[in-house]
Structure formats: structure tokens, C-alpha cells
Amino acid sequence: MAISCEAFPTRKRRASGGSFSNLLHSLLQVTDEICSLTNTANFLLNRTSSSTIRKTQLLGVVFEDLIRLSNSNSLLLPYSLILCLEEMYIVLHKIKTLIEDCSNGRSKFNLLVQIETVADTFHRLTGELSTLLDVFPLQELHLNDDVRELVILLRKHCSESIPFVQAEQINLRNDVVSVLDRIKHEIVPDQAHLSLIFDKLEIRDASTCRAEIESLEEEIINRSEEQSKTDLVALIGLVRFAKCVLFGASTPSPRAAVMRRNQSSELAVPADYRCPISLELMRDPVVVATGQTYDRASIKLWMDSGHNTCPKTGQTLSHTDLIPNRVLRNIIATWCREQRIPIEAEAVIGKLNGGVTNKAALEATRMTVTFLVNKLKDNSNKPFVEDTNGVVYELRVLAKTDSDSRACIAEAGAIPLLVRFLSLDVGAENPSLQVNAVTTILNLSILEANKTRIMETNGALNGVAEVLLSGATWEAKANAAATVFSLSGVAAFRKRLGRKTRVVSGLVDLARSGPEGAKRDALAAILNLASDRETVGRLVEGRVVEMTTEVMAVMPEEGVTILEAVVKRGGLVAVAAAYAGIKRLGAVLREGSERARESAAATLVTMCRKGGSEIVAELAAVPGVERVIWELMAVGSVRGRRKAATLLRILRRWAAGLDAGESEGFSTITMVTSTSVAQ
């Protein structure tokens, strides 16, 4: 027998003051939040988003009437109403997120390219609202007549909604795609056509171009698909090109310059976030066979230079695999965001360009570089014109982005042009130009092929040395030191740099008297130079040992690491020079970090073995030294415990009157030192 639907009436329950009321207030709150986005929607989707916001505003009236009914305690709730409202809350949240995503903070170019997809998403969400309004139990609720008519009107509007994109926007999108395709085929875009596109997108000056580039970089970070990331890189290349061609080269704002200085020289980077080789913030930390962590670029440079040992421990690497330290990278990335240091976008863009290069992006970069270098040639006789500084600054920014940009800039012949701006005259007249020039050379030197180009460019090495010694600002000197560090990654260039007395003197002076960030750059360069035996002799003559003894008072870890390298390869003269620092090494052994104590113990072992009983006697005179060595043997690192045990054995042999070292004794050292000074 057939059973009618009326035999099972809809189950209802009386409205309670708890969860249902909270649901209604949550719905009303999210509709208010959506309505508050009225003036933030991107102009490209203004009509679509405004229509969706108006529908949401009308829904708010319905929710207000439901709240009125629930407060009267006379509302009987169909279960379908609760389910309908819960689903509606989810849809409204999606709409809010979509409108926020399309707000004025989003890239206009990327929104234009995806405008049909975004319009379809708006339409899909409107369709979901239409479905929920169809099952909304209007007949079972005692809403007032105006609200009932409003629900019926909303049903009609939502059901009749269609995706809408203006023909003008479709044409504009096609123009952008066409420009990118022409760039891909090495056809330079027409300037008037490019200007019209940017004007329609309301990008009308250099500052809005920079904002657009930043938005595109932010979206690269948030994307997971590699193909969409490479498309965004192409858009960045287009905007960079247009920025230079349409609005001219520009220098950073004073606020941006202050932020950059804070991020580089004045900001104290936690020791665990710094690479043991470069002493700089690690961008891509990796673990080597010994378990030590280094920045990928630095340890790769070390290995490519022919080393097969761990720089920190000296142990032979059983394999050359570099394992990403993702946990540390995430921690560093979080810290960088808190300090407002841009790290992620650069790393992502660099990684993309290190793989499959987007042809349009590469050609856009090449066109931008050609334009800037030609501009620099035109201003060759006007080094103090502000436009020249702007061009060099644009090259500096471009050279920081990726390997393709660095290659393009060098191939275009920019290096000889940049060298001219390293002189004392330029530093005196336009300090910012000198800083931008030396920093551009530094960024270019990251690419291995460019190291050779820089070293072979007439006057480049002398120019860097001049900035290092007499640069107009600490930033210029620090970046000159960083350039020396980068170039010294190649063994042959390390020898050439070490032979330059002005380079060594400049590094030593900067390490002694510069601010903390500049000191670190100088010490990193010195440490690199100290890995070559021939160069170590030059460093000792340049009083590097005395400098490291001084630096140990404020930066013990960096100072003792360099001293360890110098006494290891510098022979008796280096040991003699380090004699006066034994008490300082004892203090580091007692109070330093784990890494510093390990290096101090290794340094003392080398000095005792090479210097003989006089060195051991000086060490034994340090108050409480045996107790400190015992502590290191108990709680130090593996290498630290091993070196401490050796040091204790040397002290015990000396106390017993046995031979303490492997040299002829301190008198021999003194004689060698005296001879060296006499020469």
C-alpha cells in the first residue's frame, strides 16, 4: 500500500537560546564583513563583486528577521532550516575569502590573466546560494511579508545569474598575452601600446609598478603549481621592463634604504641561523655527511673549490650529498617574516629560474638589461646625475633576483661601466651611487661565470679594494668585503686577492672598526682567504692574528674560527703572532659558545704542538685552565671533547717534563718573527 508524505510530517523543535542564536549572529556578522568590502574590490571585478555583495546585504535582512523571531521564543525550527543556514555560512565565508583575494592588494596583471576563472568562481558560489535558497523552508517560517518577498527576489536573482566579464577586459587580457608572446619571440613591445595597457590597469608610475611586482612575488610564494609560478615570473619580467622603459629608473625611498641597512648591517642574526662558512643568514640550509649545517651556496662553493672535508670539523666527507634542513629553513623563514626581511620570494624565484626557464621571462629580463645598460652608456660622462644612480640601482635589484638576470647583465657589458663608479670621487660626490655599484658587482659575482668576468675586467679588483679601504659609507665597505668573499670562492682568485696588500689591509681595518654587519662580512672574507696556505702568510703579515685577538672580545666565535685556520696553515710565524692571545683563548674556552670552545681547543692544540714548551707553559699559567678543559671533555661537542682530551694530555706531558710539542720551541719562533720583522 502506498504511503503519502503527509504520514511523516516534518520534524520540528523549538528554538533554543544557544546554538541556533549563535549561528544566526555568526551569519549576520559574516554578511556585515562582506558588505564592508564594498570599496576594496579590484576595479577589474567591480561589477561582479558588487552584485555579490548586494545579494549578501539582502541576506543580512533575512537573518535579522530570523533573530527577531528566535528572540520571541515562538519559532519552531525545521531541521532543514538549521542545515540550510549552516551550509549558507560556509558559502558566505567562501565569498568573503574570494572578495578579499580579489581586493586591491592582489596583482592586477595576474587577476586580469585569470579574470574568466575568477568570474566563474563568483558564479559558482552564487549558484550554491541559489540552491540553498531553493531549499530554504520559507513556508514554514512566520517571516513578515517584506522579508518573504525579499527571499523570493533573491532566489530569482541568484538563479538567473550568469558569469560576466566585460569585453574590454577580455581584450585587455588578450593584449597582455600577446605582448608576452611577442617578448618570447624576442620582439620588443611597442612603448605606446605598453603604456596604454598599464594605464588601463591603473599602473601609472614607478611606485605602483613596485607594488605590482611585490604582489606577484607574494603570489608566487602562495602557489604550489610550478607552471603557474613560471607564468607569474614572466609577468614580473614584463612589469620590470615596463617600469624602466615607461617610468624611468628609480632609486629606493629613504624608508626602504633605512630598512635595508637595518636588515643587513644593524640586525643581529641569531648564531644558529648563520652559515659557519659565510657567517651570513642561511637562505637554504643543508646538512652534510658529518651532520653539520651550512648554507647551500656556501658549502657548494667549498666543495666546488676541491675540498672534500667538513669546514667546521675538518673530517673527510664520506659523501657529497646535501640534505635540505627543512625544519631550520622554516624557522629562519618565520624569523625573517617577523623582521621584515624578504627571503622567501627571492629563494622561490631563484629556484624557478634555476630550473626550466620561462622564455618570456628570460627575454623580458634581457630587454630590461639592454635598455638599462644602453642608458648607462649614454650617461657615461655624467656619473653624478641622479638618473645614473637610478639605472645602477635597477641593475642592483635585477642582479639580486636570479642567475639568468646576472648572466644577462654581465653579457651586456655592464661590469666595466659599473667599475667606474667605485672611485673615491664618486664616493665623495654621490655615496649612494658607489654603494649601488659595488652591491651590483657583489650580486653579479654570485654567478660562477661572472667571477671570472669581474676578475678579468680592468680595474675591477682595484676598484673593490679602493671601496674596501676608503668607501664613502659602511654599507659600501661591507659589500666590498662581501664581494671579496664571493670572488675568493675560486682557489685561483683567492691567491690573487691574497697578494693584494690593500685588500688584506681593508679587510683587517673593517673587521677592527666597522659596525657588526660590516665586521661579519670582513671576517667571512678573511676566513675564505685563510683556507689557502700561501695567502695565510700574507694575512699574518697584515696583522690578521692581532686583529682576531681583539675581535674575540666582542665576537669570539668568528675571531677564534679565523685564528684556528691561520695557525693551522701559517706555521711558526702565525703561532708566534698568536702567543699574546693565549689568555684570550683561555677565556673563550671557559665562557664561549659550544662552537667557539671547540675552535679554541683546536687552536690551542695546534699552537702547543707547533710552539713547544713555551706555548704550553703560557697556557698552563691561565687560571683554572685544567678545570675548563675537563668541563669541555664532559659536555662539549664530539670534536671539542677530542681536542680537549689532546690538550689535557699535552699539559700533563709538559708537567711531567716530557716533550710537549713537535717544534723546536718558542725561541725558534721568536727568532723567525724577529727575522720577519727585520725584512
From TrEMBL:
SUPFAM superfamilies: ARM repeat (SSF48371), RING/U-box (SSF57850)
Known catalytic reactions: S-ubiquitinyl-[E2 ubiquitin-conjugating enzyme]-L-cysteine + [acceptor protein]-L-lysine = [E2 ubiquitin-conjugating enzyme]-L-cysteine + N(6)-ubiquitinyl-[acceptor protein]-L-lysine
Enzyme class of the recorded protein, top EC level: transferase
Region forming the signal peptide: none
Molecular function in Gene Ontology: ubiquitin protein ligase activity
UniProt keyword annotation of Cytoplasm present: no
Recorded metabolic or biological pathway in which this protein acts: Protein modification; protein ubiquitination
Residue span(s) of domain U-box: 268-342
Entry protein name: RING-type E3 ubiquitin transferase
